[in-house]
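Need a sequence for this fold. Nothing fancy.
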């Protein structure tokens, strides 16, 4: 080899080619994104409980408490002292009846907790808190 040929040759690259490393990282990221939803829940055989919905109104009992403290069971107004006996009489037919508590959002939290305790004292085993369905745009 002549000196002129050595000087005109392209110099060798001494750096690391990171393109294969980036390709590998992107493939691993895609694999992670595909498999991560599968890892959210445990792979255990479970029988989930069935829930009664509002469609079965004949079986539900609605207990409504207004912000000023008035109480109604379904459509009937009751005094605070008569809540447990009235509810117990309705639950006597079917103790698994869903009791839906409808408490105004402006009421104190202690009102809801006291109402839950009174429903349990009346023998209610299925207690649910009524909520308002949020409306979505679209």
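Here you go.
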């Amino acid at each position: 080899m002549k000196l002129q040929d050595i000087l005109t040759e392209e110099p060798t690259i001494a750096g690391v080619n990171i393109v294969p490393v980036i390709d590998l990282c992107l493939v691993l990221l895609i694999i992670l994104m595909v498999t991560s939803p599968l890892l959210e829940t445990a792979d255990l055989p479970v029988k989930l409980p069935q829930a009664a919905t509002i469609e079965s109104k004949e079986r539900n009992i609605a207990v409504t408490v207004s912000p000023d403290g008035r109480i109604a069971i379904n459509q009937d107004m009751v005094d605070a002292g008569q809540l447990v006996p009235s509810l117990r009489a309705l639950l006597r037919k079917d103790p698994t009846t869903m009791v839906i508590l409808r408490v105004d959002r402006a009421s104190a939290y202690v009102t809801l907790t006291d109402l839950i305790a009174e429903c349990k004292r009346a023998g209610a085993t299925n207690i649910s808190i009524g909520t308002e369905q949020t409306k979505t745009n679209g």
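For context: The longest strand covers residues 98-103.
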